[in-house]
Design goal:
By secondary structure, the protein is α/β, with parallel strands linked by helices. It is built from 9 helices and 20 strands. A 13-stranded mixed beta sheet has the order 2-1-6-5-7-8-9-10-11-15-14-13-12.
């Protein structure tokens, strides 16, 4: 069937067939909610509106309602398909929630690039046992760690992009040993997914993000990234602090709105969290609570049981932070709160810790 608008699980659909099928899947009471979200987006994509209403992931606790132009999403999808050499008929796996732009964009890439879309439940540990020979897939870091850690055989994925939050040293170490091309990506809902990538495994792993063709990068007076793209209505000023390492090339340092200020000294929590994770293997977070005397005070939160590696954590924190910036308290919780996109929900965590203390 050469006039297929979208192929799902090897079944080609024309636009009219896709409309009918999507409505049937949504109305079927046996269809799980995560799957209904996929077909609800497809219906939105097929309607006459020129834009999509999207809620940002709210990693910092401040979700925004965005209006994304479908033409911008198409251009972004074309950039991805071209950059990763994705050809019509190749397979793409969607294991991210379609409520967020990362999930939506995988569907758009399949429409634009003629890819064969496969979908599975978006969990922190996706079930990939029935997936074979996937050419392209997108995951968030926790999914990669759960999928590829402690294995002797690996899911058959040719190219894997990882984004949504910072890439830890643990993930980069893991990526070096798996037979999959792994790329870290940088982007956000406002840019219709990624605008820069870096290879994190293979013969020459990269330590910097390189903008995709057609993307121009700069920084503002805060050292935060400014993005210019021909398919975006205006330059986008981010809150991501970066170090420019060349033309349209940068290292990501952390979110300026996550910075913790103790007696005028700034702490980048992502740097501390990544170092502790690499040393101990424990998911953790560093937050700042209001303090009248010092502006903020540091609290360290670890996921797991207090008896595990506590001395190693204390030693690592002493190495990473000067004496006056040591956390005033270490708290152990069963699970760090995450949003539907599996990103650490710092605002919810701060609220939890504030109530505890």
């Amino acid at each position: 069937m050469n006039d297929a608008f979208l192929t799902i699980h090897d079944r080609p659909f024309s636009q009219q067939e896709l409309l009918t099928f999507s409505n049937c899947r949504i109305s079927d009471q046996n269809t799980p909610e995560w799957e209904k979200s996929v077909y609800a987006f497809i219906l939105d994509w097929l309607n006459e509106s020129q834009s999509i209403i999207q809620l940002s992931s709210g990693t910092t606790g401040r979700s925004k309602i965005l209006t994304l132009q479908k033409t911008s999403m198409i251009r972004s999808a074309e950039n991805t398909c071209h950059y990763f050499s994705l050809d019509p008929g190749q397979t793409a796996l969607l294991c991210l929630p379609a409520d967020y732009v990362a999930g939506k964009m995988m569907v758009v890439r399949c429409i634009v690039g003629g890819l064969n879309l496969h979908i599975t439940e978006p969990r922190s540990a996706p079930d990939l046992t029935v997936m074979t020979g996937m050419d392209f897939c997108a995951m968030v870091p926790v999914q990669v760690l759960n999928t590829f850690s402690n294995r002797t055989s690996y899911p058959s994925i040719r190219k894997l992009i990882v984004g949504g939050t910072g890439i830890s040293a643990e993930l980069e170490n893991l990526a070096r040993d798996i037979p999959v091309q792994v790329f870290a990506t940088y982007g956000m809902a406002e840019t219709c997914s990624h605008i820069a990538v870096r290879r994190i495994n293979g013969p020459q792993p990269e330590s910097f993000y390189q903008a995709l063709p057609g993307i121009e990068l700069d920084t503002d007076n805060r050292g935060c990234l400014v993005i210019k793209a021909s398919y975006l209505p205006s330059p986008l000023i981010t809150n991501d602090q970066v170090q420019m390492t060349g033309k349209n090339r940068f290292r990501w340092m952390g979110r300026i709105d996550n910075l913790i200020n103790v007696d005028g000294r700034k702490v980048v929590p992502e740097e501390v969290e990544s170092a502790v994770l690499e040393k101990t293997g424990l998911e953790c977070a560093l937050i700042g609570l209001p303090d009248r005397k010092h502006g903020q005070r540091l609290v360290f939160i670890a996921e797991g049981k207090a008896a595990i590696k506590e001395s190693i954590i204390r030693s690592e924190l002493k190495r990473l932070l000067p004496p006056k910036l040591q956390p005033c308290k270490t708290i152990w919780i069963e699970k760090l709160p995450r949003n539907k996109a599996y990103k650490l929900d710092r605002q919810k965590l701060a609220d939890m810790v504030y109530k505890m203390l």
